[in-house]
Amino acid sequence: MPEKLLSVIDFLTENKMLLSVLIITFVLMCRRLVLKQIRGDVAFVSEHQRKWMSRTKNGTFTLTVLVLFMLWQSEISEFALSVTAIAVAIVVASKEIILCFTGSIQRASARSFRIGDWIEVGSLCGEVIEHNMMATVIQEIDLHHGQYHFTGKTATLPNSMFFTYPVKNLNFMKRYVYHSFSITVKEFVNLFVLVPELIEQIESHCEEFIDVARRYNGVIEKHAGVDLPGPDPHIHITTTSTGEQVVHVMLFCPTEMATHLEQQIREDFMQIYQETYGKNNLNEDRNPKVSFM
């Protein structure tokens, strides 16, 4: 009898699948008997009975998992090592794909932009024309040179860039923009006396759209919740380390008119500067030394 029992145990040990089925069957039968004993013949189960029935189900499940884990421990260890190696290889090989996918989720959850918005990502600026799970396509705009026009280039940004660079939404710049530029004057003269007349000239150029600009500026302030510089022109004068004077001009204007207005203001400044200092303080055979930045 002991020899037969040992042979049966050896057989079941060698055939782990059959042993696992027998263990699961035995545990399920025991659980069913215990649950039937707890429930009894009552029509409605009490709260106390529900607790013990739940404990029984959870306990038998935990016991089954532990027994099966101990039975298949060696196979599970080998499988885990192989799966880990495969998983690491897959993650390393598909790192960029995973980052692009998660970057798309980050964009959608944060609502950073949508199609038609102007955005800036790193050194690239443009209007979003398409976005999907892997990449975002933009029509490039030359914002860094203050031109605000399309360059004709299409840039495809992998969504992984959203984890590396901040995404700036420039959608309000599609209509109106804070346009800034500077004029450098090499001659050391008092430029502050030119400011009132220059502001008057700028205001005359902005008369046709200043009312709309004020309303739009108010909309932006309300949406952003911050106090912006305002639609009125701003001028301030600084000096460089080499003694040159720099006139900084900032105006709030329609985006498509920014470059044209800049040229008009530069012309006005040159004319005012020439009328004020060109004859009295400069030689007749020398033009005022004014450069543009």
Structure description:
A five-stranded antiparallel β-sheet has the order 4-3-2-1-5, with no helix packed on it. A four-stranded antiparallel β-sheet has the order 7-8-6-9. The chain folds into three domains: 2-85; 96-172, SH3 type barrels (Roll); 175-292, Alpha-Beta Plaits, CATH 3.30.70. It starts with a helix and ends with a strand. Helices cover 49% and strands 20% of the residues. By secondary structure, it is α+β, with helices and mostly antiparallel strands.
Question: What are the main properties of this structure?
Answer:
SH3 type barrels; elongated; transmembrane helix; single chain; Alpha-Beta Plaits; Mechanosensitive ion channel protein MscS; 293 residues; 20% strand; LSM_dom_sf; 9 strands
Regions with little confidence, pLDDT below 50 for 5+ residues: 282-288
The number of E-state strands comes to: 9
Helical proportion, percent range: 40-55%
Q: What would you report as the Rg, rounded to the nearest angstrom?
A: 38 Å
Beta-strand content: 15-25%
Provide the CATH architecture of the largest domain.
Answer: 2-Layer Sandwich
- Ends distance: 103 Å
| Coarse morphology | elongated
Adjacency order of strands in the biggest sheet: 4-3-2-1-5
Secondary-structure content class: alpha+beta
Task: Report the mean per-residue pLDDT as an integer.
Answer: 81
CATH class of the largest domain: Alpha Beta
CATH topology of the largest domain, anyone? Alpha-Beta Plaits
Number of helices: 8
